[in-house]
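As described in the Methods, two query proteins were run sequentially through the folding procedure within a single session, without resetting any intermediate state between them. The first query and its resulting structure tokens are shown here.
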Amino acid sequence: MNPNIKGALIALMAFAIYSAHDVVIKILGGDYSPVQVVFFSVLFSFPMAMMHLLRDATHGTLIPVHPWWIAARTIAAVVNGFCAFYAYSVLPLAQVYAILFAMPLLITVLAIPVLGETVRLRRWIAVGTGLVGVLIVLRPGQAEFELGHISAVISAICGAFASIVLRKIGRDERSVVIMLYPMMTNFIVMGAILPFVYVAPPLDDLGKLFLVALGAWVAGRLLIAAYNTAGPVFVAPMQYSQILWAAFYGVLFFDEWPDLATGIGSVIIIASGLFIVFRESLRSDSEKPVLRTRSRPETGAAPQIAPMKRIEKAWLKSRKSRLPK
């Protein structure tokens, strides 16, 4: 099989699992605070994350090279994950995805001040068009603007910021630092709030909470495998398949039928995002912030593409160096 087709199929599988993961979050959100869902998803992810973080063979300490950027990214990641989990629990999945699909557009804009990128007229038009799509989904003044919509918008902004900061400092920081700080901060912050919102879950709901952690980890590993197999231009667009899963799961589990505005807005946002992805694929320079960044809400517990690839590469290199010649 052609590697690019294989990578795209692996990515489709990853995003199908991510969508199922989001369905479980939505189901749990009917009975539990997002604080509790995030806390347990991070808690159950620790063993899986630690097995890979311990393989980080790069020398150094846990003190960041760029402490302020790490702090900013950590805060953004915590807010990103919490707001996304809340939005999943109160809004139709298709609406949440449509808003979160604006992340590549926001990454393009943030690349200007953070990375010193130059964004030309065509990409500005794509960004503007995509944001019009977001407004169509939100329908300000025509539909009830809920806290869930605000949370989804905040999640998209914070997710884009966290992604672009990773693009800026990823080569300088140890992978274990990049992944551990958001995970630990989520665990501490959500753990501090947890006593005020805690509801004792029965065994089957604990199983669902474990599935949230497992789903995010498995999907993240598949996405890394996809990027290792195919070019980013073949993998990145596969995230938009989630809108189909959202429509399917919404009808199947929640009796949520996507309305016309969500459908039209989604098409516009996806078209704008695809334009930016394919424009970046034609560029010869190495600064490609959208293609090289994962556009999924994060709690710090799921594997990150660039840091994980670096850990695996360093681990394989150190292992080969220990083999007898």
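Immediately afterward, the second query was submitted; its sequence and tokens are:
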Amino acid sequence: MKKVIKLSIIAMAATLAVGCASTSDIDNLQSQIDGLNSKVSQASSDAASAQRAAADAAAKAADAEAAANRAAQYAQDTNSKLDRMFKKSMMK
């Protein structure tokens, strides 16, 4: 029984000595975590910037579409007027 207790104490001491992380390991992990946090923050910022740019592009595209529709309507109105003028001049 004493032998089992001694062996278990030795095994536990060896496990604690070998299994525990050193301070430098913890510091290394913390620096990696800090680096990843800054990269995540930068990626989030880039995503927000891209989203704003996409929204601006969509607004400009909508404005351009509205201008093109107006121009098409003006052209159609002008063609109608020219057709009426031509028909009127042919009737004389």
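Residues 64-92 form one domain. We note this only descriptively and draw no conclusion about the first query from it.
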